[in-house]
Design a protein that fits this description.
This protein is mainly α. The protein contains 13 helices and no strands. 40% of the residues are buried. The model has no long low-confidence stretch (mean pLDDT 90).
């Protein structure tokens, strides 16, 4: 087990993100049995990965340090933030507000610890000519930030006198996530549109570009449903409505382009499709887009977006099954080789 533990990818928490968002999606669709099964898997996966990550830190601290100081890897740790927030949403929906608050606090502490470390790594561990390090995985930081917004606004009503402070914090985090998205997407678009692109550059992390916009849309609709309390925040609602619609449109624009990249890599350039932990970052954006479409449709009172959500939920579920089968095959192969 030691070699596997040492090589544990920090982005494995994306499996919890993908499973959890599908549980939320199927719960919204009224399929409680499917939602409960997926929620149970997400919770078990989260607990297992927390235990394995703690063991890795205890026994292989040098490997964790290498990953944290790697510009291509450090942002993968933000999957812990997003996964913990999604688990908090699942717990809150099942009548456990205190556990949901605990998840938000854990996710927020992890977010604070990773935030300046990640930007310090970008500042001091790269140089001006190394543009090729830019990839979609950087936007996992935005996904983690916006997940704090969604969970924070959801639990605000359970905080009594601190509810107003939590809603204010959620508005700040949403704005901060938008600012980072603008910065990262500019660098990312420059990388893919103006520099030589190889098939290996088009990893599943590319889909986080769409996923970050989708979860920002969901965070925006969550703020619209929250009681702002302060007159200043209430005055921001027209701005939030306009930006939320723009974010959904931007996420939608990316979908055909991402499909084109996928076809070019695997059908035109014949790159084999193998299981890797980052494949879950392909599933999560699909499920997140389904949830974002439903929430936006409800906020705008525009029923056709509900149909879009249903169709995308089916696509995301098929993708989840395919990636889960790939994971099981890899685990069985590893067990056979070990025997």
């Amino acid at each position: 087990m030691r070699p596997g533990l040492r090589a544990l990818h920090p982005g494995n928490f994306a499996a919890v993100m993908a499973t959890g968002i599908l549980a939320i999606g199927w719960g919204n669709a009224g399929q409680s049995a499917v939602a409960e099964a997926l929620a149970g898997l997400a919770l078990l996966g989260w607990l297992l990965l927390l235990a394995l990550s703690a063991l890795r830190l205890l026994h292989h601290a040098d490997a964790v340090r290498i990953d944290l100081l790697n510009p291509r890897m450090v942002f993968s740790f933000f999957t812990l933030v997003a996964a913990t927030s999604i688990v908090g949403l699942l717990l809150h929906a099942r009548g456990h507000p205190r556990l949901a608050l605990g998840c938000w606090m854990l996710a927020f502490v992890a977010w604070c610890a990773l935030l300046y470390l990640a930007f310090a790594v970008l500042t001091f561990r790269t140089h001006e000519n190394n543009v090729n390090i830019v990839h979609g995985g950087w936007l996992i930081a935005i996904v983690g930030t916006q997940s704090l917004v969604v969970l924070g606004a959801r639990i605000a009503g359970d905080l009594g006198g601190l509810a107003q402070a939590m809603v204010f914090e959620a508005h700040l985090l949403w704005s901060l996530g938008l600012a980072w998205y603008g910065i990262f997407i500019t660098l990312f678009c420059y990388r893919i549109f103006f520099l030589a692109l190889k098939p290996q550059d088009l990893s599943p992390l590319l889909w986080v570009v769409m996923g970050a916009a989708a979860i920002s849309t969901t965070a925006g609709t969550t703020l619209l449903h929250a009681d702002p309390g302060l007159r200043f925040l209430h005055a921001q609602r027209p701005f939030i409505e306009g930006v939320t619609l723009m974010l959904w449109a931007w996420a939608t624009w990316w979908l055909p382009l991402l499909v084109m990249f996928f076809v070019w890599k695997h059908a035109v350039r014949h790159e084999p499709l193998r299981y890797e932990p980052v494949l879950w970052t392909f599933v999560f954006p699909l499920g997140m887009y389904a949830v974002a479409s439903l929430r936006l449709g409800q906020a705008a009172e525009f029923a056709p977006l509900g149909w879009v959500a249903q169709g995308m939920l089916g696509v995301a579920s098929l993708a989840w099954l395919a990636v889960a089968c790939g994971l099981l095959r890899q685990l069985l192969r590893a067990r056979t080789e070990a025997a």
